[in-house]
Specification:
Udp-n-acetylmuramoylalanyl-d-glutamate--2,6- Diaminopimelate Ligase, Chain: A, domain 1, globular, alpha/beta, Protein-Tyrosine Phosphatase, Chain A, six-stranded parallel β-sheet, 33% helix, six-stranded mixed β-sheet, 3 domains, UDP-N-acetylmuramoyl-L-alanine:D-glutamate ligase, 430 residues, single chain
């Protein structure tokens, strides 16, 4: 089926589903293929539960006119998103980066909602499937779309730009993450700055952190509008007045300065706040409303989140982890004036041949710091920690069993690790 024909069906059934267990009425189910499943096998189930149509790419499953047969389901989803995107002459803001992109996106969303009808990426649905799903949520009254873009291989940001067609964009920062897919830091830089290249060709607008030399060095050949924030001479700059337990800062715009008190832990969130406020300012959101939006933002999903339990106070920053983000949050945690600081670190994933080296480097970095106790969780930490005197557990379940007999009380605790470690399971035992 051609994209324009599929689009006419989408207009009448404007919801997209990819999980047959959770479908909406008047929706189209896209039978995507995963590593361990064939979505075509669940098309009938989606129709039984209320979807109007199911898009499949295996002829044997297309048994009546409710099934839409295409050559490739994923490609059809992406082309449909592009076709839909081209119907809207609105700002589409793309945001990518190694760390902070989801937090910055959430702050940006809250700020821009003070004035506009916004569609923004839900959670971190920022890949080759999540981006088209976000684009297909754009409606007639949408005035600005915010699209988060993630990548773990060369060329992925360029591909996402092909069907998102961003008009504005931002790279939060560049750090060591997904090295397994990228191979080295230079490839990460080239991949992330594919966003700059796209915006340069399309006469777009780039928001850039003036204090980030890696990114500013890549802009010399890009010809388009550039909005600077951070550093000493950005449109929006700021200084930290307090980083723990929550970030407080003084931000400056021209000759005016404003105090902002956030609910987020960590000095590393300064850049995220300035980035979001620079975009809000560009789109003429009043300063007072921006401050209110930032101060009203409550972190969730284990991102810079402070959790008080009956026994302890926790800083949960365990949605993702890489060497760069690990060191940043640990350094901020060291600033807390509490004698009973406990560090619980989980494995970092997708580091490729650098995996053991980066984990050992982190162990050496923290072992002599002023923590009352340190615990390591995961197969990688357990492997490289054999000669060092830090308790290590093969997985979360093993640590929980230990906690059951050795509870931690009256402590300030940092939980940091990759999402796949599921460190949030520990919270109930602290």
């Amino acid at each position: 089926m051609k994209t324009d024909t599929l689009y006419r069906i989408f207009v009448r059934n404007p919801r997209i589903c990819t999980d047959s267990r959770n479908v909406d009425k008047r929706s189209i189910f896209f039978a995507l293929e995963g590593d361990t499943f064939n979505g075509n096998q669940f098309a009938a189930q989606a129709l039984e539960k209320g979807s109007s149509y199911a898009v499949v790419d295996e002829k044997k499953y297309a048994i009546d006119d409710r099934y839409i047969l295409v050559d490739d389901v994923l490609s059809s989803l992406q082309q449909l998103a592009l076709f839909h995107r081209m119907h809207f002459n609105i700002p589409v803001i793309a945001i990518t980066g190694t760390n902070g992109k989801t937090t910055t996106k959430e702050l940006m969303n809250r700020i821009l909602k003070q004035k506009y009808h916004i569609v923004a990426t839900h959670g971190n649905l920022n890949n080759h499937i999540g981006v088209p799903l976000s684009l297909l949520k754009i409606e007639k009254n949408t005035e600005i779309a915010i699209i988060e873009m993630g990548a773990n291989h060369r060329g992925e940001i360029a591909k996402l730009c092909e069907f998102a067609l961003p008009t504005h964009g931002m790279i939060t920062n560049i750090g060591s993450a997904h090295l397994e897919g990228f191979g080295n830091l230079e490839t990460i830089i080239r991949t992330k700055t594919e966003l700059y290249e796209h915006l340069g060709k399309k006469d777009g607008t780039i928001f850039i952190n003036r204090g980030n030399e890696i990114l500013t060095d890549r802009l010399s050949q890009i010809r388009c509008e550039k909005i600077w924030y951070g550093g000493k001479s950005g449109n929006w700059s700021g200084i930290i007045t307090n980083a723990v337990p929550t970030l407080e800062l003084k931000v400056a715009l021209n000759a005016d300065s404003f105090t902002v008190k956030t609910n987020m832990f960590g000095a590393y969130n300064l850049e995220n706040v300035l980035a979001a406020m620079s975009i809000g300012s560009y789109f003429n959101v009043e300063v007072e409303k921006m401050i209110g939006a930032v101060e009203g933002f409550i972190p969730s999903d284990n991102r810079s989140q402070i959790v008080n339990t009956p026994s302890n106070r926790l800083i949960c920053d365990a949605y993702n982890a890489n060497p760069t983000s690990m060191k940043l949050v640990i350094d901020d945690f060291l600033l807390i004036a509490d004698e009973r600081k406990v560090l619980i670190l989980g494995d970092m994933f997708e580091l490729g041949e650098n995996t053991e080296k980066e984990h050992l480097k982190l162990i050496k970095y923290v072992k002599d710091k002023s923590f009352s106790r340190i615990f390591l969780i995961g197969k990688i930490f357990s492997t490289v920690n054999q000669t060092l005197q830090i308790p290590a557990f093969i997985d979360v379940d093993s640590f929980v069993k230990w906690l059951d007999k050795n509870p931690i009380k009256s402590s300030y605790i940092l939980l940091k690790g990759s999402r796949g470690m599921k460190l949030e399971k520990i919270i109930d035992y602290l």
